[in-house]
Amino acid sequence: MWTRLKSLMLKDIIQFSRDKTILGVVFWLYTMEVLICGYAMTFEVKDLPIAVIDHNQTVISRNLIDKFTLSEAFEVAGYPDNQEQAESWMRSGKVKYVMVIPNNFGEDLRRGESPGLQILLDGTNSNAASLAKDYTAAIVRNFELEFTDNPAELGSTVRPVVQIWYNRAQTLESFVVLSMIVAAIMMVGTIHSAASITREKEVGTVDQLMVTPTQVWEIFLAKTIPTLAVGILAFFPSLFIIWWFGVPIKGSMLLFVFLMAIFLVSAIAIGVLIASITKTLQQTLLLCFFGLFPILFLSGTMTPTESMPSFLQPITYLSPVKYFMDICMGVFLKGVGMAELWPAALNMAIIGAVLYIIAAWRFKHNLSS
Questions:
Q1: Burial class of 322 by CB neighbour count within 10 A (0 to 12, 13 to 18, 19+)
Q2: What is the pLDDT of residues 76-92, one digit of tens each?
Q3: What domains are defined for the chain?
């Protein structure tokens, strides 16, 4: 059994290494496309999830919170009990913004003093953090204007003290480079597995394999395991792009590669499913591109999911890319470990397992028919 499986896998690896076009596509996706998009892409955000810690608990502080709630830029996701819990929410990605209202906020404002307002921002998406900082200044200013009967004589000002976490320099390239690497991993896993199976069907080698003692599940593993290895190995050249843009690597690369392998299972399964309903390589590639772009757009690689229309947001939870984006940002920019990433890893593993089982069933059904 293992001899046959090893021979099948070796055949696919040799076949892949001889295909200069596919090798060029893999290299392009992991290097040049990331480099170009790192310079070219911009984003727009709204409905940023925030956490509020109100130590003041007065009408004035609640009025300020209402200003943020009514704004299109923010959406209050919860009221943590303390700052430690709020920081935990930030690390896990539950919120992107924390506002801490101090004890004497209302009293200081009434006395004409300048009360402080602590703002913590998740800087993994630097564009969202920069916009959130600007929106905060505008909301606080409007709050002050409504607080006084004579705006021309307004003497006191609330001082928002803003701290940017995880990406203090607010460089957009960090988010763009990592998001494009996630997209490249997804595309390589899907396209390579789909093209490999379709090519076998076109040249008729699948029919030849079926008359051998080889089992269907052995053929399926031989088609998926090499793609998994290719997807992992192809990631390492992109580390040069990460270094070139100065993207920090704060977490464990071993953990990232392990979770990337789980993510690739989903990508490979999608490729097998696409190959099961196409007959030619041209059909496969077209369907891959038509299918992959909606998955990528609806997963936070291009635009934060919080900024999408509410009717689209539930769909994003079905995409493994959404969870892998959180993992990628967490490992590289936040330096978090499995303690914070396990919910995303578990959801990604469940989706991958379901897709892989369905793909195996479709693969067996196609060969049997």
A1: buried
A2: 888 888 888 888 888 88
A3: 2-30+172-368 (no CATH), 48-165 (3.40.1710.10)
